[in-house]
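Researcher: We're teaching a course module on how sequence relates to structure. For the next exercise, students receive a sequence and then see the predicted structure as tokens, so they can try to spot secondary structure elements on their own. Here is the exercise chain.
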Amino acid sequence: MKKLFVILFFACALAFSAKAQLAFKPGWNLTFQGGVNYTSSEFWKIDDWHHFTSDAQIAVGYKFSPWFGLRGAWSGPVGSFPNNEGKEIGMMHYAQLGLDAVLDIANMFRYNPKRFLNPYLFLGGAGNYRFETTDTKAFFGPALRAGLGFAIRLDDVAKIVLELQENAHGDKFNTLVDKEILGGKWDDNIAGLIGLQFDLSSGKRPSIVDPGYGVVPVAAAADAEAARLAAERAAAERAAAERAAAERAAAEAAARAAQQRPAATPAPAPAAPASITENVYFDLNKSVLKADQQSKINNLVSFLKQNPNATVTISGYADKATGTASRNMTLSEQRANVVKKALTDAGIAASRITTGYFGDTQQVSTVPEMNRVAICVTK
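Model: And here is the predicted structure for the students to work with:
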């Protein structure tokens, strides 16, 4: 029991330091579960199926963040107790009302509303009322609750919820002997439950943060991403057209100059640019080279082949607004190496390429998307 409390404490501490990739809106949920429970006693061993009784739970919860929520839960209604000094097993009715803190383990590291399986931990307290029987009197006492659960996503509204609970009661829960709940002995009521959870706020919850940190619905986010890609392609086409126009103008100027010189004097070739810079952009949390960025790789390869003494420095970056510092450092390294591999695959010697990576320690732009980049500078 003490080990479980320690695990829950460190999980909570980790949760406060975690970042969510996607936007989240708080909301309510409702859970219905049924199953079985086993109540321990110093008078018996786990050797008879009569020790197991039916159990049910109804819970109303509220998620304050992707990883933390509170829930109020009612559970019961049947338990077992030893009568006649353990020679027979008696049945009793009880009702327990508890308040739990719920920690979503997966969402501590990265919030994903479409994740299929979300494990969670919970820890709380409860008040327990045992109804009077022919062998025992009515009794009300405190309880401690802890456990592990798994939420299996069916759709945006419904989840299948499996849960294993430990409910620690004073000895008087199922016997006539009463001791303090943390005094060395208690009655363990262990329950296994399965049921359905309904997200009462699913229709109100957004999914992605836009470049200005405002919330964008899923469909609008897809449209925004398509528009962004189209704008980037248009910008690349404009840049290519401007380069072609500049080259044509330079060629025309050279031709005019040649006509004005004596025939024996050859026209000098247009001077090659001293260096070029290409910004290769990547998608959120990705290090895969996109098709619409290939023209930038081709431009670098062309320049390096035309200038055999030139070298290129590739610097990888990541968006500070998303992800953890360690993940962003790895991501920026991967982005720089992906561009390096594309150049070496095109025939550029690795000795002419220098790579560096800065994670989110440096931001080249105030727009998050512009920081998901590998900047390539030749010299």
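Model: If you want an answer key for the exercise: Residues 11-21, 178-184, 206-218 have pLDDT under 50 and may be disordered. Residues 138 and 202 are 42 Å apart (CA to CA).
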